[in-house]
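Lecture notes, continued. The same structure-token format from the folding unit now serves as the input rather than the output. Read the line below as a description of shape only.
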């Protein structure tokens, strides 16, 4: 089974709209929290049976991409999905690769990988003492080139009241919308060169584009021998 994630479609652009005669008009402002994830070892090659650890630990004061400010986000519903793909073709984008959920054994110590089906599963964070954390492991059971990534499964309404924004210069009310998360794996040390050797590069306008970020920072590529 293949997954095709059209990242530009997943991203919802800024809109200004009114909420009916009885409600004050407001403008919506896109916000995208940044979440660090660590995958270790950060090797580009593994052996069958090696342990790939996936961890996260960060406070509930979360950095937001556009404003560069931190916001207090308690008991956040992450709605995060982990993507597990096998790199079997070089003439497609990585978002068109086949699923590889069956290529691993999964072990969870805290939160972690749940309900895997074909190419993706839930990725659950635990919130305790003002910190979010995950401690999980994947053990590859198959040789080949593989990719791990994460994305936010946006709800039908992307309004995000947890972030309160000041009024605009003209006095218009501003409300946050959260159409996407920005995940950063190993602070960018994620074997991106190996990915680019094996797939077509995603199309994007510039390095601020979400598609660029998703490919450059939100993926981890490796080979199992």
């Amino acid at each position: 089974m293949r997954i095709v994630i059209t990242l530009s479609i997943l991203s919802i652009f800024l809109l200004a709209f009114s909420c009916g005669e009885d409600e004050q008009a407001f403008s919506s402002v896109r916000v995208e929290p940044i979440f660090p994830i660590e995958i270790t070892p950060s090797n580009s090659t593994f052996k069958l049976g090696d342990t790939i650890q996936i961890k996260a630990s960060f406070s509930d004061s979360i950095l937001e991409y556009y404003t560069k400010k931190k916001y207090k986000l308690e008991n956040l519903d992450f709605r995060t999905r982990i993507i597990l793909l096998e790199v079997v073709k070089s003439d497609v984008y990585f978002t068109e690769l086949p699923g590889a959920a069956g290529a691993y054994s999964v072990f969870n110590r805290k939160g972690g990988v749940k309900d895997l089906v074909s190419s993706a599963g839930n990725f659950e964070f635990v919130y305790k003492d003002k910190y979010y954390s995950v401690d999980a492991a994947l053990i590859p059971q198959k040789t080949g080139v593989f990719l791990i990534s994460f994305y936010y499964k946006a709800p039908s309404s992307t309004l995000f009241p947890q972030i309160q924004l000041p009024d605009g210069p003209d006095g218009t009310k501003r409300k946050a919308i959260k159409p996407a998360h920005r995940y950063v794996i190993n602070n960018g040390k994620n074997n991106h060169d190996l990915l680019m050797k094996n797939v077509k590069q995603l199309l994007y306008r510039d390095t601020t584009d979400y598609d660029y970020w998703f490919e450059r920072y939100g993926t981890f590529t490796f080979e199992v021998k």
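Point for the exam: The CA atoms of residues 33 and 120 lie 21 Å apart.
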